[in-house]
Write a structure and sequence with these properties.
single chain; eight-stranded parallel beta sheet; 43% helix; binds 1,3-dihydroxyacetonephosphate
Length: 255
């Protein structure tokens, strides 16, 4: 095993503080002390504190779904890296396609967030991936390259292994339409090659590249068996303890 698998749950805009704590408790009861897989729960901002309390003393890590690149100031509705750190978050999802689409986030803005997260010892989970139209016009790899290079501009060799990349084809998110293992592996290998060009092979081999998009217990083992698929960023299936736990078990078996 050169790279420990990662299973991260992106709860998106689901779960109140109370409901999130209940879900986290159910997950902790069965896999709270699992260390063979890196497990991250990413509740909405309003449930970070309650979920964080449940995770205290457990191996499962806490992540946010977004943050602002500035330290503080007049940015109504935004949350800084320091605010996340003081709630014991260790990870932050950045550049999710839903934020690119609905909030107009650009590669340049996402890059500022990645650099700010790293400067504050938060591990970024950087999302990249093409839309259906982009895939159909044959521009998947060009789009993924633009997303990866854009997000990582200025990230140093010392920092790169703390970055997690999530390849999430937009057409597979929440649609039940999962990428085939071949489609996913092709893009994951392409990202690994890009990282090799940017940082050299030894470091590129250490970076975890997750797949996201309708990943479920029923299709996870096949995806996780691929050489460059190092885990999953899970939406829908992370909202129920049973399916999330089964995904962690699938990742453990694939280690
Ligand atoms: P689904 O697993 O619901 O397709 O969502 C994937 C995703 O967007 C995770 O960030």
């Amino acid at each position: 095993m050169i790279r420990k698998k990662v299973i991260a749950g992106n709860w998106k805009m689901n779960k109140t503080a109370g409901d999130g704590a209940i879900l986290a408790r159910d997950i902790v009861a069965e896999i709270g002390r699992v260390t063979s897989v890196d497990i991250v729960l990413c509740p909405p901002f309003t449930a970070l504190e309650s979920v964080g309390r449940v995770l205290e003393g457990q191996a499962i890590k806490l992540g946010a779904q977004n943050m602002h690149p500035e330290k503080n100031g007049a940015f109504t509705g935004e949350i800084s890296a320091e605010m996340l750190r003081t709630l014991y978050a260790t990870h932050v999802i950045l550049g999710h396609s839903e934020r690119r689409t609905y909030c107009g986030e650009t590669d340049a803005f996402i890059n500022r967030k990645v650099l700010a997260a790293l400067a504050n010892q938060l591990k970024p989970i950087v999302c990249v991936g093409e839309t259906l139209a982009e895939r159909e016009t044959g521009s998947t790899l060009a789009v993924v390259q633009r997303h990866v290079e854009g997000a990582l501009a200025g990230v140093t060799k010392q920092q790169i292994t703390t970055v997690i990349i999530a390849y999430e084809p937009v057409w597979a998110i929440g649609t039940g339409r999962v990428a085939t293992t071949a489609q996913a592996q092709e893009v994951h290998a392409f990202i690994r090659d890009l990282l090799t060009k940017l940082y050299g092979a030894p470091l590129a081999q250490k970076v975890r590249i997750l797949y996201g998009g309708s990943m479920k217990p029923g299709n996870a083992s096949e995806l996780l068996a691929e050489k460059d698929i190092d885990g999953g960023l899970i939406g829908g299936a992370s909202l129920e303890a049973r399916s999330f736990i089964d995904l962690v078990k699938a990742a453990d078996a694939a280690n």
